[in-house]
Amino acid sequence: MKLRNYLFNCFSLLVFLTGCGDGKENKVATTTTEKDTEESHKEEKHEENVLLDTTPYQSTEIEDILMQVPGKFSGDKYNELKVKELIDQWPKDLEMKEYYEQLLALVAEDYRPYKEYFDGVDTSFEENSAEPGSKNVDVPSGKKVNIQILFDSSGSMNGEVSGKQKMQLAKDAVQSFVSELPEDVQISLRVYGHKGTGSDADKSLSCSSTEVVYPFQPYDQNQFSAALDQFSPAGWTPLASAILAAGEDLKAFSEDDVENILYVVSDGVETCDGDPIKAAKQINQSDSKGIVNIIGYDVDNEGQELLKEVANAGAGKYETVSSQEQFEDFFKKEKSRLIEAWYEWESTNVDKVYDSESIRKDEINAKESEMRNIQEREEKRLEDLTKYIGDHLEEDPVDIRLNVGDRGRELRIYVGDAARNLRIELSDNGLNQRIETRDKALDERIRIREEE
Fold first, then answer.
1. How many whole angstroms separate alpha carbon 203 and alpha carbon 152?
2. 144-322, CATH topology level
């Protein structure tokens, strides 16, 4: 009985000890397995961290390529050693397309500024400069111009020059003058000395006579002719009063962008005791800054000197005509001047188009060359890294090489076509504008010559 109990106890102890030994071994095995799994997860996580987001680089369409963001190591940020260190950490089970897109995420260049430039090139040309103005007046460019003619209707205008009444000669000259002005110029006609007679009894009436017969407005041939027909040679010469009255007319045009010009048509000096020099200076120094020009018809030397002083006081100029032949010669010279002005206008604007075309073509060429250089640098880096990937994977990355080649070819085609098309557009538009400029100048020269 005692022996049975002893054997039972020994057997129980053996079972107990065996159970304790199995538990320890299981615990060690479990711990080892968990550690291996954790190390594996760490390795996978490390591999995932070195891979970049390739979403922007998945399209191979040229429009999408041009808008792709630059890679992490693009341009001057490129560091071959760091890039290869990252490649060494890449998993070896990716598709070739994925490796290619990872390379782009690393070294793709930024082509967005070039697309923006080529899309934004303006192939049109600036408008030509202002055309030569009237044959008798240089019209200020970029300003609103008001011109008032002050017409002398004193009795002396009934005299003749070369067998023709001075009044009629002056009217013809004025009519010709205003008909040549640009369409946007406003003109007005004020007459003076057109009432009464040259007698002392009518001096007061005549010296106070000055009247607007054609208010400020664009030139209308019929209306202006009718205004000229309203008066004939009559009385005295109230030149100062007429200039002062013109100053009142111009008060309504005192803005900074307005040019006010007076043309006094007269055959003599002041005869109404006024001071035309003072009047001319006053109007020129007023807010309207009126310029007083004088055209003298058959004026004696003393009268010419006085009228020149009036013009000088009004910051203007004096012109004189004393015969029909001189009158015709005067306008022939003015026509020659205008013809020459059209030659100069043509030359200036044609040269301007040539210069503008050349400058912009040089800019296009520079941008084309710059983009080509960047594309070549990108392609060289991709080719070198593709070879390195082949060594890393121990297989030929032919698909990556093909993608690199296709990308480079698409970019070269794009920049070549974009630059060439812009140069062609510039050449065509420049040629068309030069032809239009030359045709315009030729037509105007022919028109001017036919008027002689």
1. 15
2. Rossmann fold (3.40.50)
